[in-house]
Specification:
Blueprint (H helix, E strand, L loop, with lengths): L1 H15 L9 E5 L3 H7 L4 H21 L4 E8 L7 H14 L2 H9 L3 E5 L7 H13 L7 E8 L1 H15 L7 H5 L12 E4 L18 E4 L9 H17 L1
Parallel strand pairs: 1-2, 1-5, 2-4, 3-4, 5-6
Helix pairs in contact: 1-9, 2-3, 3-4, 4-6
Length: 245
């Protein structure tokens, strides 16, 4: 009965969404709460990260199935290096697992194109090569664009952009549009909707420049519990806000 009620609620929400013209083209997600999700269940933090990766795969599929054009996922921040080494090593191992051939075939089957934003040079060479490989192997795809923010921080993004500008446009005036051409996110538009799970209500150094006009949506659910119902709730709320504006 609970399953039936959930699906009926999801169906009702889906009917309320304008699928023809007012979908957010670009959704960004702060996948927060893996560790707390695991702790509440008496599991090690690694179990939360593993569950979070499964939710990430499901969310990519959900966005692809529902006509979202771009999805940016905050997968590993510049601050994450401060975590215990064994936890960092496990998260990196999940990255290697995600970009293995089986998942690449699934991405290609669904016409999904992959990008990485951030300074990936800090990762082990094996991981860097795996990232570059999946980018190359999905390059010809024309469907959903998925951007993984890896070793990404909004402040460092702005700083590296300023450094690049100083090298190329010495003493010249620069517009906001020109500045954006030097950011890690030059290939994808600024997000229309930013979702954060776990109940926290702050940007935590994610897409600081890019989110200046983004609609923010927060849920108390931990990332491993994010699902299609919550995605529909966020999209519907986005459309209601845009309709009022």
């Amino acid at each position: 009965m609970e399953w039936f009620g959930l699906n009926r609620t999801k169906a009702n929400l889906k009917r309320k969404i304008d699928w023809s013209s007012r979908l957010p083209k670009h959704i960004a997600i702060m996948m927060d709460g893996n560790g707390r999700w695991a702790k509440r269940r008496g599991f090690p933090r690694s179990a939360g990260h593993y569950a979070g990766m499964q939710t990430m795969r499901q969310t990519i599929s959900m966005c692809n199935d529902n006509g979202i054009e771009s999805l940016t996922l905050y997968a590993f921040s510049t601050e994450n290096w401060k975590r215990p080494k064994d936890e960092v090593d496990y998260i990196i191992s999940l990255v290697n697992e995600f970009v293995q051939d089986t998942n690449v075939r699934e991405l290609n089957k669904n016409n999904i194109k992959v990008f990485f934003i951030g300074d990936i040079s800090k990762f082990p060479e094996e991981t860097q090569e795996a990232m570059c490989k999946v980018v190359d192997q999905t390059e010809e795809n024309t469907g959903l664009k998925v951007y993984f923010a890896m070793n990404y921080g909004g402040k460092s993004d702005i700083i590296q952009s300023v450094i690049s500008i100083l090298k190329t446009k010495k003493g010249e005036e620069i517009t906001e549009e020109e500045f954006e051409q030097f950011l890690y996110t030059v290939q994808n538009p600024n997000p229309d909707l930013l979702i954060r799970t776990s109940g926290e209500k702050r940007l935590s150094n994610f897409l600081l420049w890019q989110s200046a006009h983004t609609e923010l949506w927060f849920t108390d659910e931990m990332w491993p519990d994010f699902n299609e119902l919550l995605l529909y709730q966020s999209i519907l709320d986005f459309q209601i806000r845009k309709k009022r504006a």
